[in-house]
Amino acid sequence: MLKCLSVSPHIMAPTSVGGPLPTHSRVGREQQRYGIDGERLVAGCIPVRLSISSSGPEIVSILLITSRGGKGYVFPKGGWELDESCLEAAARETVEEAGVRGKLEDAPVGRWEFYSGKAERVHSAHKGRCIAHMFAMHVEEELSSWPESPARKRIWCSVPDAIQKCRHDWMKDAIRAWVKSIDREDLLCNSASMAL
To answer: Could you state one GO cellular component term attached to this entry (predicted)?
Structure first.
């Protein structure tokens, strides 16, 4: 029951690298945004790196991080809070969880519905339903230390490898949607997306 939802046209301002590095991740749900039906709203990024190989073609790599429990690879994402825009939440979650900063693409890749952990499904009014607003981030800075560095590992992958390694189907769909949005379906199956 995973599906891509329409994008939010009011979320378009670009965000770039810079600013002070947070010393810790935000925790708690006191400032959490919820949708009209009680679903938890989250924001996240597909961190990408574009470079030119010595033979000339552009190389595209995607950054994945280990989940907090260490069970597979995911994208950085987390709660969209009341005191920030969706873009700000996506950038904040990405630096907190993945330790990278960069420029977000103006338009969101899309919105995906998913269901979070078992405990939240049982104990919450929204039964764990979440809506993830995902953006592509062109990484400009990779930090050696970041708030969640003790709990997470990073890996740069080719586009096909990122799809294969992603733990969640909706995240795989987000990669495909981003590739389609930049009109580069060739990245899904050939060496143009090989890892650096």
So the answer is: cytoplasm
pLDDT at 120 over 70: no
Q: Do residues 50 and 60 make contact, with C-beta atoms less than 8 angstroms apart?
A: yes
Of 179, 136, 99, give the one whose Cα is nearest residue 15: 136
- 98: pLDDT strictly greater than 70: yes
Q: How far apart are CA 6 and CA 38, in angstroms?
A: 18
Calculate what percentage of the chain has a pLDDT beyond 70: 76
**Is residue 187 in a domain?**
yes
Domain count of the chain?
1
Q: Please name which of 96, 76, 64 lies closest in space to residue 166, comparing C-alpha atoms.
A: 64
Q: Is residue 49 part of a domain?
A: yes
Q: How many residues does the chain have?
A: 196
Tell me which residue range forms the domain holding 109. Answer: 32-193
In a domain, 3, yes or no: no
CATH number (domain holding residue 54): 3.90.79.10
Rounded to 5°, angle at Cα 160 from 159 and 164: 115
Let me know if residue 27 belongs to a domain. Answer: no
Strands 77-79 and 100-104: unpaired
